[in-house]
Design goal:
- This protein is an alpha+beta fold and about 150 residues long.
- The protein has helices at about 15-25, 80-95; strands at about 5-10, 30-35, 35-40, 45-50, 60-65, 70, 75-80, 100-105, 115-120, 125-130.
- The strands form three sheets. The protein has a four-stranded mixed beta sheet, with helices on one face. A four-stranded mixed beta sheet has the order 7-10-9-8, with helices on one face. It has a two-stranded antiparallel sheet with strand order 5-6.
- The longest helix is centred in the middle third of the chain and has 13 residues, at about 80-95.
- This is VOC family protein.
């Protein structure tokens, strides 16, 4: 576990579907659970899915990023290049559809990265990305982004 692991709680309307997605497709080890929530080890961080009524699931706002309508509310992880490729293979084998298909963002520029967005069964958006140059993750100079 990282020394500064984050905790994220998400609403879902079906715990069984969430278990299939996070536990089986994404291979996140399950932690504690109750009839209303399940903990997962999401790449070393604590992710908790909480069962709510379907009408209580939040709407999705979007923001333009490099030509894509990116869901403003999303989470994910930054993987290394090879792990990102392995995840793409696993998602395709499982038949997971993309909210935003795998693409290279900022191609040929500082901060070049590969990214994709998927949705869990409750509609929560997840982004998985990797940087060509990992040092660009928190770089602040030399960028001309809109």
């Amino acid at each position: 576990m990282p020394s500064t692991a984050f905790h994220l709680a998400l609403p879902v309307d079906d715990l069984e579907a969430a278990a299939g997605f996070y536990g089986e497709i994404l291979n996140c080890p399950q932690g504690r659970s109750s009839p209303r929530w399940i903990d997962y080890d999401f790449y070393g961080h604590q992710l908790v899915v909480h069962k709510v009524a379907i009408e209580d699931l939040p709407a999705v706002a979007r923001n333009g990023v490099d030509g894509e309508a990116v869901p403003a509310s999303h989470f994910g992880v930054v993987l290394d290049w090879n792990d990102w490729d392995a995840l793409q293979s696993r998602l395709e084998e499982a038949g997971v559809g993309y909210a935003i298909a795998p693409t290279t963002r900022f191609a040929g520029r500082r901060g070049e990265q590969r990214t994709c967005f998927i949705r869990d069964p409750a509609g929560n958006h997840l982004e998985f990305k990797c940087f060509r140059n990992p040092e660009m993750l928190f770089a602040t100079d030399g960028f001309e982004y809109e």
